[in-house]
Amino acid sequence: MMNLPKLDDLIDEQMTAFEQPFDQHMFVVGPPGSGKTALAVLRARQASNEGKRVVLVTKNRMLAALAKQQLEGIRCVTMNAYVSTEYMRLDRGYIPELRRYVYDWDRVCADFAEDGAKAPCDHLIVDEGQNLPAGFFRWAIAFGGGFLTVFADENQTTNDEHASLSDIRAAGLPAPIRLTRNHRNTPEIARVAEHFHRAEHAIPAIAVRPRSGDIPELIAVADWDALATRIAYRFQNQAGSIGVIVGRKDDTDVLRANLLALLPGGRVDAYTSNSEPGQEDAILTYEPGITVLTDKAVIGLEFDAVFLQGVQDALPCRTLAQFRQMYMLCARAKHMLTVVNGVTPLSKAQIDALPPPNLLTR
């Protein structure tokens, strides 16, 4: 299960967010490791204990499943599932789309307004809000919940249809409460992530954990067998939770098969957006074992150790989106980060785009 902090362990900026009343909107922004998902879960639990009808919404199924594992009796769903289900209640057929999975938010809001639809919950909590479309927040303020709590970090945007912090505020959210401390990464890992940090309005978070002495590493592997051997060796010697981030969906099954052959009886899970609905509910990412995911499925998650293989498409970083992708991926690791050169070798330009050897050993 997710290691939620006790209320006594929250620092002042986190407690400020936690203690906000539930009869008003709240907007919280913070970097990786600042406690956004933990606060979303704690807020949902507290609101439910006070008799509120609560729904927690996020972008992907894996993060929704993680929240569900913590929140018995509280609805935790993806944005698509939440909005499309509520639209079907209008008895107007399928939700209008501009293209597949891209909703026509003007029509959606107009239809809800015409039908006089009421909010299906008292408090709607949104995690990783930067990865949801701006139109969703216009809908959510009016029809999604009585009041909203939104957690976001614009520097971790991972998809094209996203909302800026300005978009979220323009929907009717107040000025944000800002979280500034990184409680997840060691300083060594934080420095690697910061190499890719690009932001006009925010400096990198302050890593509050002590130095570990373990410098993140770049390793070369020739094939999936070699990578599986390295991962299995790490697990057999130090256990813990290991996240392996690959670039292509088909690669998850290939690597999982290799790992299962090396670790019979061990927990080795694989997940992509193509996985069967409900499969994510059985994956306990915080338990000892290995989870193989794609880069798009890992947002909001964290692991004791991360093997980052899926960097081909992001390096060398030429766009803000690519910098944000690498920043987010590196920040998934708590204690150990290994960047993988292979199975397809990185080019010299891609290797040169990585942090220097004093931050990422070769």
TrEMBL record:
Domain (IstB-like ATP-binding) spans 24-95
Signal sequence annotation: none
Q: What InterPro entries does the entry give? A: IstB_ATP-bd (IPR002611), P-loop_NTPase (IPR027417)
One Gene Ontology term of the molecular function aspect: ATP binding
Gene3D superfamilies, alphabetized: P-loop containing nucleotide triphosphate hydrolases (3.40.50.300)
Q: What is this protein called?
A: DUF2075 domain-containing protein
Its source organism is Pseudoduganella plicata
